[in-house]
Design a protein that fits this description.
By secondary structure, this protein is mainly alpha-helical. The protein is built from 1 helix and 2 strands. The longest helix has 55 residues, at 2-56.
Length: 93
């Protein structure tokens, strides 16, 4: 009789411990699913925002333009010997 009671108590204790571990595993899986869904939602929102920026032209520079204006070529630089103020006059006292 005593052995049967110990066996029943051991079985119930094992069942209780199994239940606790399975509940923790289920909660972790649900939390992981929620965070993955949140990650996917954020990626979708960021992609939509980037697409809207590109569509409106507010995405910064594009090929051939700088901030929406066409690029202009710089005039060639003159040699230093022909630039004004390239040689300082001697200081007279």
């Amino acid at each position: 009789m005593e052995t049967a009671v110990i066996a029943v108590i051991g079985t119930l204790l094992g069942s209780l411990i199994t239940h606790v571990f399975q509940r923790q595993t289920t909660e972790r899986a649900a939390q992981l699913a929620r965070s993955e869904q949140l990650r996917q939602d954020r990626i979708s929102a960021y992609s939509a925002f980037a697409g809207a920026l590109v569509d409106t032209g507010a995405g910064g520079t594009t090929a051939g333009t700088v901030h929406g204006r066409p690029r202009t070529a710089r005039p060639p630089r003159r040699p230093a010997s022909t630039r004004t103020g390239s040689v300082r006059a001697p200081i007279r006292r």
